[in-house]
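call fold target=Monocyte to macrophage differentiation factor 2-like isoform X1
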Amino acid sequence: MKLVRFMNNRAPSNKRYQPTEYEHAANCATHALWIIPSIVGGILLYLLSDDHWEEISAWLYGAGLSSLFIISTVFHTVSWKKSHLRSVEHCFHKCDRMVIYFFIAASYTPWLTLRDLGPWAAHMRWVVWVMASGGTAYVFFFHERFKVVELICYIAMGVFPALVILSMADRSGLCELLVGGGCYVLGMAFFKSDGIVPFAHAIWHLFVAMGAGIHYYAIWKYLYTPVNQPTSTAR
C-alpha cells in the first residue's frame, strides 16, 4: 500500500516529482545540517596548510563542499515555498545541478595537487575542471531535457579522474576514497526512486553527506595532518 501521507505518485518521465510537505522538510534539513560543518571544515584545512598549493586546494575544496550543501538547501527551500517564485526555483534548480560538477572537481583537487603524479596523470589536475565546465554548460543549455545523459555525465565525472588516483605511488587514503565513493553509488539508487520509496531524495542526501564526510576525513588525515605529510612533494 502506498504511503500517501509521506509520498506522492511517481512523476511521468517528462516531469519532476512533486514531494509531499514532509519530504520537502526532509530534503531541506538533510543538507542544511551540514552547511556550518562544511564551512568550518574548509577553514580548518586552510589553517592547516603549509604552502601556497595546500591553501589553494583547501580553498577550492572547502568552497565546493560548502556550496553543495548551501545551494541544495536554498533550492529545496525555494521549491517548498514556491508559490510566487517559479523563475527563482528554476534558476536554483539549475545551480543545484551545476554545483555537483564543481563539487566533484573540488573533491579531486587536493589529491591531484598534493600527491606526486606521473607526467600524463598530472594533466588531470586541470582536466577535471574542464570536465566540470563542460558539465555546467550542459546543464545551462539542456537542463532536464535528457535526464539519462545527465546521469551518465555525473558518473563519468566521478569515475574517470579516479583512474589517476589508482596509479599513485602513495595509496594511503585509498580505502576511505573507495568507501566514500561507494556511499555515492549506493545513494544513486534512491536518487531515482522518488514516488517509489518515501523520502527517497532525503535518503540520497544522507548518502551524499556520508560520502562527503568520509572523503573529508581522508583529505584531512592523509594530506593535511603534519605527521602524514611527505617531506617533499613535486607539484
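return ok
The radius of gyration is 19 Å. The domain at 21-228 is CATH 1.20.1070 (Rhopdopsin 7-helix transmembrane proteins).
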